[in-house]
Amino acid sequence: MGQIENQIKDEVTILFAGDSGDGIQLTGGQFTDTAALLGNDISTFPNFPAEIRAPQGTVAGVSGFQLHFGSVELFTPGDHADVLVVMNAAALKSNLDSLKKGGIVIANIAGFDKKNLRLAKYEDGVNPLNDGTLDGYKIHEVDVTKITRETLKESGLGTKVVDRSKNMFVLGFLYWMYNRKLDNTIRFLEKKFSKKPELIESNIAVLKAGYYYGDTAEAIASRFEVKPANIKAGTYRNIMGNEATAIGLIAASQKTGLNLFCGTYPITPASDILHFLSKYKNFGVKTVQAEDEIAGICAAIGASFGGALGITTSSGPGIALKGEAIGLANIYEIPLVIVNVQRGGPSTGLPTKTEQADLFQALYGRNGESPIPVIAAQSPKDCFSAAYEACRIAIEHMTPVFLLTDGYIANGSEPWEVIKSEDLPDIEVKFAEPREEEDPAFLPYKRNEKFVRPWAIPGTKGLAHRIGGLEKDFETGNVSYDPENHERMVKVRQAKVDKIADYIPEQALDAGEDAGDVLLLSWGSTYGAVKTATKILIDEGKKVSHAHVKYLNPLPKNLGELVKKYDKVIMPEMNNGQFIKIIREKFLVDAIGLNKIKGLPFVTEEIVKKVNEVLA
Amino acid sequence: MGQIENQIKDEVTILFAGDSGDGIQLTGGQFTDTAALLGNDISTFPNFPAEIRAPQGTVAGVSGFQLHFGSVELFTPGDHADVLVVMNAAALKSNLDSLKKGGIVIANIAGFDKKNLRLAKYEDGVNPLNDGTLDGYKIHEVDVTKITRETLKESGLGTKVVDRSKNMFVLGFLYWMYNRKLDNTIRFLEKKFSKKPELIESNIAVLKAGYYYGDTAEAIASRFEVKPANIKAGTYRNIMGNEATAIGLIAASQKTGLNLFCGTYPITPASDILHFLSKYKNFGVKTVQAEDEIAGICAAIGASFGGALGITTSSGPGIALKGEAIGLANIYEIPLVIVNVQRGGPSTGLPTKTEQADLFQALYGRNGESPIPVIAAQSPKDCFSAAYEACRIAIEHMTPVFLLTDGYIANGSEPWEVIKSEDLPDIEVKFAEPREEEDPAFLPYKRNEKFVRPWAIPGTKGLAHRIGGLEKDFETGNVSYDPENHERMVKVRQAKVDKIADYIPEQALDAGEDAGDVLLLSWGSTYGAVKTATKILIDEGKKVSHAHVKYLNPLPKNLGELVKKYDKVIMPEMNNGQFIKIIREKFLVDAIGLNKIKGLPFVTEEIVKKVNEVLA
Amino acid sequence: MPEVKEKKITAKDYASDQDVKWCPGCGDYSILKQVQSVCAELALKKDETVFISGIGCSSRFPYYMDTYGMHSIHGRGPAFVMGLKTARPELNVWMITGDGDSMSIGGNHFIHLLRRNVDVNVLLFNNQIYGLTKGQYSPTSEKGKVTKSTPYGSIDHPFNPLSLAMGAEATFVARTMDRDPKHMRPILIEGEKHRGTSLIEIYQNCNIFNDGAFFPFTEKATKADNTIFIEHGKALVFGAEGEKAIVLDGFTPKVVSISDIAEADLWIHDKYDRVKASILTRFFDDPREEGALPRPFGIFYQENRSVYEEGVTAQVERHIEEKGSPNLDTLLEGPNTWTIK
Amino acid sequence: MPEVKEKKITAKDYASDQDVKWCPGCGDYSILKQVQSVCAELALKKDETVFISGIGCSSRFPYYMDTYGMHSIHGRGPAFVMGLKTARPELNVWMITGDGDSMSIGGNHFIHLLRRNVDVNVLLFNNQIYGLTKGQYSPTSEKGKVTKSTPYGSIDHPFNPLSLAMGAEATFVARTMDRDPKHMRPILIEGEKHRGTSLIEIYQNCNIFNDGAFFPFTEKATKADNTIFIEHGKALVFGAEGEKAIVLDGFTPKVVSISDIAEADLWIHDKYDRVKASILTRFFDDPREEGALPRPFGIFYQENRSVYEEGVTAQVERHIEEKGSPNLDTLLEGPNTWTIK
Lengths: 616, 616, 341, 341
Ligand SMILES: Cc1ncc(C[n+]2csc(CCOP(=O)(O)OP(=O)(O)O)c2C)c(N)n1
Ligand SMILES: Cc1ncc(C[n+]2csc(CCOP(=O)(O)OP(=O)(O)O)c2C)c(N)n1
Ligand code: SF4
Ligand code: SF4
Ligand SMILES: [Mg+2]
Ligand SMILES: [Mg+2]
Hints:
The complex is a heterotetramer, with 2 copies of chain A and 2 copies of chain C. Chain A is an alpha/beta fold. Chain A has 20 helices and 23 strands. Chain A folds into 4 domains: 5-225, Pyruvate-ferredoxin oxidoreductase, PFOR, domain III (Pyruvate-ferredoxin Oxidoreductase, domain 3), CATH 3.40.920.10; 244-415, 3-Layer(aba) Sandwich (Rossmann fold), CATH 3.40.50.970; 430-504, no CATH class; 516-615, Rossmann fold, CATH 3.40.50. In chain A, the strands form 5 sheets. Chain A has a 7-stranded mixed beta sheet, with helices on both faces. In chain A, strand 10 (260-264), helix 10 and strand 11 (286-289) form a beta-alpha-beta unit. Chain C is α/β, with parallel strands linked by helices. Chain C has a domain at 18-213: Thiamin diphosphate (ThDP)-binding fold, Pyr/PP domains (Rossmann fold), CATH 3.40.50. Chain C contains 11 helices and 12 strands. Chain C has helices spanning 28-41, 77-87, 99-105, 107-116, 161-167, 181-193, 215-218, 220-226, 274-281, 308-323, 328-333; strands at residues 49-53, 68-71, 92-98, 120-126, 172-177, 197-203, 227-230, 237-238, 244-249, 252-257, 295-302, 337-340. The mean pLDDT of chain C is 95. Classes of the chains: A alpha/beta, C alpha/beta. The interface between B and C is large, with 73 and 60 residues. Strand 9 of chain A pairs antiparallel with strand 12 of chain D. Residues 22-23, 26, 28, 57, 127, 131, 206-209 of chain D line the site of one iron/sulfur cluster.
């Protein structure tokens, strides 16, 4: 057979799919790390089933990991896969849609036996590998299970253990396909199994078997090379969104010298923030897994009252429970960061899927006039700066702050240029000073030029004072039922939040001219897809610009001016239209929504298509 | 002295004020009933202190009852009082602002002794009765306490008991002033004290003493007469808002034959709905005072699942706790009425004061896309029809429905023409029919032309099915993680709510031409003040119209068209601007807000003033 | 005339058409099977039976029963039960909950359900872990437990669910385990028969995140020495050969060799005795510790107390008797009217 | 050199400048007075003391103390306490709650506080009614109670707060009453000394909505026969002349005449004995009933168990010892980096 061709590619998307038990996430993670270390730009998107271990072999049990890597800058995990790796029939069934026309399928044929076909609910006698389903794709079948077992037949390990390493075969094979070295993964295996040397050996053996299989099997005509990306010089690491959020919070606490206190309750997809934070006790981080979300936030408020940096994390249904306490934090005027890793709703909804439908809940989900700043992260690494910035605003403006991320970026990962602690922006913390008896009375609600009241913590001499949820006097903070005072307080709480606009950057364009036919106005995790789409449209010569809003409340001061310079404003959101309502209301522009509510992120082409429709 | 004049008045506002323990609410209530029985139109506004019994004599402890009665139609309890009755110095201090220039003050001088002046925080030696404070008013001083004691000195009753009847003196005196008969109150006393005949006697004696005092004391120059109002012939009763809500709910349950189940938790100012409902057990009404608001709503959902009419009632902070469960009811698609008697916020806020700041909470206060119909009541009696209509929509459209009232109309009262049960609109209830084994499978989420799914209650043969908070398949209702299905479900839940617009009346004008300079667009309890203001403005020749929106979600289909016909749209709200955001966003009109956030209802002149400013 | 025999109902008839999606090997399967089989044994009417749950792996249970069902929100199951039973007292209601669902977020509803004594069978699947959210510790996890959220070990002193239930006025308190279906069945049946809230704690193995938490009690090698099966009217004896017994030394329970004591001195289990039942719920030692008391399984306590929803219904009925049938027109009219002509 | 004597701190020093706004005659006044006076007696530092409450009449308490304070939201006091104490273990924290606040909406936080054993003094003002919302029944109201929300009498079986606390792993359980300041003071002091959650239930008269609920225990004519004051190491005797005693007949407590029994047979109160303390919490009869057991007042139970926030702090400290001081740059860098040139 012919020689193996070596094709150079700018970017490649691989989608690994298999049973929850197949080690798909680990495989994807390893390939990601290796690609990153080689200097590719990367973007990943894991996709979990809702069940812990849904019955093996079924569509419900399929776990996926999509990885986009390239020698060019990337902002999404890829619209469609170039290569789809499937460990069983169910994985093929549920992921074939995501494969590019003409793409490569690598199928573990052991996963297409009668039993697996039945579990995947193919009709009797039908096998997608040979019934024409895959016409137009390049199929490569391997009996991964068999080869793995053969590789390890001398190892003395049980079948169960042996079978568990079959993901290494796939990984080795893909390393071969994409001209990668094995050392990073070998190092990883050595560390992971340091206490079980027999597993180091066996896994490396299978990894190599996969690699050599590429060399010897003659079925694959091409290998591919993806050169290092031409990205800014510097030191990089790979980071997941939830991890970035956790690190951002810790960084803010370290930078300010405040102890971090996180009061929370587990919920998908936010739990990992707790898991990360709870590891860093030596940073003075205290995490409390409370009895419920209400206790979590109330504990965080209690800690903030005591002078800690109070944090609470959750997802939609848990945030719903916090509404009353958020109102209290609002009237207490105390620092607090509320992280909502959004997921599909309403109600329990789609716990493992992504969505942006909790913006209104953040803005309005409690009784009375209770304005709260809202910041949204735009990508896995941006979770760091968004979290850090949320802390800054909470502390400097004495207010609860909402940080919105979502399942997509929380579990996704991308390279992140390592930042030095000294390069982090300053955050000003000032506790109220002790007071002697002869000093004038302490006024806990007297405001500074930012309309911010003092943070007076227990243990400070002479500042004993009481705060509560009843309306309070404008300066003393004592309970006040006075009608004029109430209106004044409602207005000043609003003014305090509005004033933050003076302390955040003006809205910049991400791409395009500062006037034109279409402005794509996005927020949150749609960033990558919209950015990529804008690039395509501009390259096509369209007069399209892109602005991405990070500060959802208060809005950047120049935003109204900015949006009015375009003929049309298109607002992609993974919800039924929320931020668009704010823009329409505030600026009276007839913005057009582009809404996707499928528990999945936008793909670039959906955005390109919409813009072209509007332009037509 | 000269003869006592008898003036005819179209309308009069009396404000009774005194200590919480002074029987102010009872006095006001009696005068109201008597005026109503005579055929006056009336409107009342009680105003309680936040404490149960704040220290006697202090401003914090003042309780007020404002009563507006007239021979013309009335829609508010009056902007300013013609007569202010004060039982002590604190009552004068905190209510003088509400008295018309030149109005009458009736003061119990026993309440202006040194102790009371001090408690009311007047400076030493200052007495507002004689320091010029009341210049320009007509003052009438009576030593109510002394006369009461003298009247009853032979009664053998203790001083405490005697003093408690001093409100009857005031009532008697006002009956005299306004030419009223005593019989209604005498009948009331006979009933109230049927088990303590000595109290019947003593109270009647003091009541009469007050009346005769008017006859004999020569200080008051005029008596007044307010003729019966020229209102529609019919049988009337007096009704408070919370009572009207309760009766509306019971009426809907009786009319449909569904049992009423109310799961709730006490909170001011909503508790009275529970108190009323719990009395009507013979109507099959079951009330559960649950352990908290969450349990209250969940119990109501459970009852609805069982085929009852599930209701939950609360106020702002309690509603905040219900967000997660409301989301569940939304995805369950099950009838449920959520009553929010709004009060001053945020947080605990001003529990006994009124506000309209929970509209956004009703619309958006939960995670995910979770649209819910919202109806607002406009006056005490309108609470009946709004509650009834909320039940109709909940049942016919299988959805949770928000009913918004507020502290102002919940505690206020007005006459209400008695409606016959047969005249109540029909409400269609259809439980899904039993199914035999051979019948096609039951599809719990299959929708009718209104996009409404069947209500299949336990105990029905062959309809066993499961519902849950996870996203469900479009027809079977089984758990579905399918991306397309999710989007379809989000859209159809929205479409179902939007569709309700086909089953509600189009928006009508309350007054004015169907185009013009200004449209006053109001909702909820501002109705009376806006209506009265509009009348004044139209009488002045201004091109002003008034539309009052009862259905806040979905909006009446013609509303957009309607608002666009006016040069300016002014939207009065007792919040910092909420409904206005909806109108601006939906119709892109530059509506102007008129906002009052003082825990108090609008007075007419505030609205007139604003319109004149805008017109200027 | 020959009797027409109805087709005998079987456990399978209670299985819904949905695929069961717990992890292979999960203890939940065994409980599902026993419940279905008990339903068949008691021939419960599918159309009049409702399973209600909160959120958690265990709380997926209702989807697998071919009865009416509500999978609700986390921790609030008892409130849905209370509402449904109050509205429809004639229904047969079961509640499924986990240790996180009932002891953590739902603790308050749980204790209020018990004090109200709503007539429902509560199956508390205790796996001492949060399964569905992938392995955080729960309020029943032992102190020091290393989990995803407690990488250096948990600090909280755990609840003893049955002891808490006793303090919360429970009227039926029992414990069984996933791996002993023969023991589970009669407990389920007694629970179903009890009028009021029947609390049945079921030790359930989560083989993914907390495998073996109960092995000392469930596995052959250790079971006999670490467990004691209590039955009303029977002595507290245990051990492979029934060779050990529990006696009270004052108020302190002690393990003795059965040969060392007179029959009259044996502790005879009396499920109606609150104090003794309370002591039994306090048999809660770590089985790995020296001198640990065996863990009891069976019905600890039972009390006959009025049922909440019956009280509500009785009040409605009494009120109708006293006040007569409702007349909507009278209500609409109110106590005081006047007429304008 | 003469010692400079500091001005002696008095109860008044702990009073804030706010007017106290409870109803005249409310039992809350007496409790406020005792707390202020105990603060003075123990010379608690105002600047290091925090009073935290939920919502209710009783929960207005912090406004009246010249210390730091949080009036929070209904039922959630324990969570604020847990957060504050975990962040700042050195502070002296008191929690004020009502029977609605702690037993109804806040029941879950309450029991979790107890099991975690956060070091806080919890004063539970039990007036068996919702005061602030003007008179609905509470979870401690007796069955059949007629209130605004139960015009035909309540149906729910009430909680026994101390029994619930025992079931929830409380480490300090006591009861006192508003009308016996002499009894209240030492209990408050003992509670303050206890390390862990000190639960002190205080019977408090709401003279507006539930006047006299505790008169059988608090008023002279009936007090002696209806109450028993328990003290560690002392016999359970009561009655105007100390003429009656409690003994246990098996597990059943009985009232006997002191002259009828030998001293050795007296029940000596042992606050460290969980079983006996549990039995004592079950002395919960309606005093108007024939043969009612007297209601105990005093410290029922005390246990020395590790304190939650200390565990958290210890873990942090141990971790710093093991891993060294935090280095933010290392954290930012993560385990794996690569460099692009
Ligand atoms: C309001 C809310 N908070 C948190 C969650 C996330 N959550 C789902 S199940 C669960 C705990 C499950 O533990 P358990 O009740 O013991 O059930 P198991 O899975 O172990 O059977 C949590 C925290 C949720 N679904 N809703
Ligand atoms: C979330 C919420 N629900 C309800 C209320 C209304 N509320 C205030 S205090 C209270 C109960 C008070 O009873 P208790 O705790 O016994 O205190 P007390 O007034 O008797 O001292 C209630 C229901 C509230 N403020 N917040
Ligand atoms: S995670 Fe544990 S409890 Fe949940 S299904 Fe799997 S084994 Fe069962
Ligand atoms: S209502 Fe009762 S508890 Fe509240 S302040 Fe008045 S007397 Fe005290
Ligand atoms: Mg569990
Ligand atoms: Mg109370």
